[in-house]
Amino acid sequence: MGTSSFLTGLASALALIGIGGGLYEFLVVDPFWPKRPDLIQPSRGGIDRKRFWIAAHVAFELTLIAALAMSWSVPEIRVWLLVALCSHAIMRIWSAFDFIPKALAFERASAESFRERDARSWAKRSRLRLPLDIVTSLATLLAFVAAVRLG
Question: What is this structure's pTM?
């Protein structure tokens, strides 16, 4: 397996890890924290989601860029990696301006300022990012299949 195939496969694995993290939040964390904000407040003993997401996104993004650089001259791989890059960029930009600031505010909110209705709305809207993550993962998988076939 060449460097391009390895990096593309690693990017695909990391994209799937991101889906797993998202599903964990949707299925395990989000149904409960709007009633118990301390579950997502590290200062009160809750989980620190940043510890996972920062590492997961940085690892994926660096690997995706490296895979794209190594595969740039191969259109069959490059096109899928560009699709992955675009869908991931849309999700990250949307998150940076909407979801992340609100998540950080929920993590810092006092019991008096916390509004369960707003938290439930955030958790529900957050699920809309999943289709973009699925596109990213499928695109990296298709790029990996192409890399292996051409390999």
Answer: 0.92
